[in-house]
Amino acid sequence: MHGSSRNRTTPTTPTTPTTPTTPAxxxxxxxxxxxxxxALGVTALAGVTGxxxxxxxxxxxxxxxxxxxxxxxxxxxxxxxxxTDLGIPVRCPDGTLLHVCGDTFDxxxxxxxxxxxxxxxxxxxxxxxxxxxxxxxxGGEHAVGLVPEGHEGGTTAIPSDVFTIGDTxxxxxxxGVIYQTHHSDFWRSTDNGETWEYLCQWPGDALGGQFQQxxxxxxxxxxCYVLSTVFNRDTVSGLLLHRVRHxxxxxxxxxxxxxxxxxxxxxxxxxxxTGARRWGEICLRAMGGRYAFTYLHHQPDEISIRAQxxxxxxxxxxxxxxxxxxxxxxxxxxxxxxVANPYGGWVYPGAAFDNFHIAVSQWxxxxxxxxxxxxxxxxxx
Length: 381
Prior knowledge:
Largest sheet: 6 strands, mixed
Number of helices: 2
Number of strands: 23
Structural class: mainly beta
CATH superfamily: Glycosyl hydrolase domain, family 43
Radius of gyration: 19 Å
Protein name: DUF4185 domain-containing protein
Oligomer: single chain
CATH class: Mainly Beta
Pfam families: DUF4185
């Protein structure tokens, strides 16, 4: 039913989400245990589900194929980055691909020596179907941290998005002890990601914390459309929408909210554009004349990567069907689009709805922490 109709432009009137709170930050080890435990205890769901889980015609089956591991000792150990995650893919102005990764370690496993975040791993090729290969890094033989981050007191710099406008690349980072975002900051590069210049920052408590994690769709109409949430998988958060002109992305005062105040309009106080939930990583992209929104659905009974496809940035996400791209499973039982403890899910530059590729992360013990390339088939558009 949903495959034969377009999404409405005017969203449903929302309910007010719970005001997020920031709990004490867990250690990396406790995060590993809790995430892996949740992944091992879920019951996998399949296909397409609406936000209210309403009955609908049987959806087209979504399938997936792992193309390859992009990182790991064999793949990126030669860049002193055998253990890393996230791998947000961005096309550089020179046409190559850069994967911007999160917490990165050398040595024998996660938590080893030489902790850096973020780092940049390069792929000179861009053929998605042939499978990408990491063949370089920012820093040459030793991947370096892209920005200053000494990790004092356990702080880190987690990338939430990287994108290119013209000949300039932009990177958004969440700073502080993980899940205790002190502030987020914004950087730019004019040399294909080799060096980065600081632009601006936002306090971690802005908009009740719901402006910590941001993702940017660079549209052809001169605007970037920005979705944001709390960066804490254990905290219920709304999903907020802003827009900003391409030339003003580094000016916090230029971000204009979309909200409901009697009616939906730009400039209203920001209102959640879909039901509040516990969000993991988020990715919004303008592609094929439409928009793709992928995200980690992090609920007590399921950790999966989902997508919504819609016509306009202001389409009604309350009613847009959710399509499950990556399903959870247990280690040793992975096949197709079933992944043990998945997260991430950023859309690759050059992907199309009928050739949909995403970067998927995995972490369930100190020897299984990586970035992978997956192809997804069967999306309803």
